[in-house]
Amino acid sequence: MTGTLKETYARDQRVWDSCAETYEDRIVCGHPDVTAYECFEEDFLDRVVLYLARELGKRMHIYDVGCGSGRLHLRYAMKSTDTALLNSRDAETVHGLRRLNPSYAFEPALAVQIDSVGGIDFSASMLDLARAKLYESGLGCFVGDKLRLEQGSAFDLQPMPTEPLPVVVSVCNSVGVMQGPEGAMALYKSVRRAVETAGGIGIISGYRQEAVGTFALGNYESTMDVCGQPRWLSPDTYASARYRQVPRRYKRAYDPDPRVVVDVFDPEGNLVQAGHVLIRDETRVRQTVETGHIRTHTDYESHWYPFSLVDEWINEHWPAGCSYHLAGVDIDVLRGEPAQLSILDPRGLLKPLLARWKLA
Question: Are the C-beta atoms of residues 173 and 339 closer than 8 Å to each other?
Answer without folding.
Answer: no
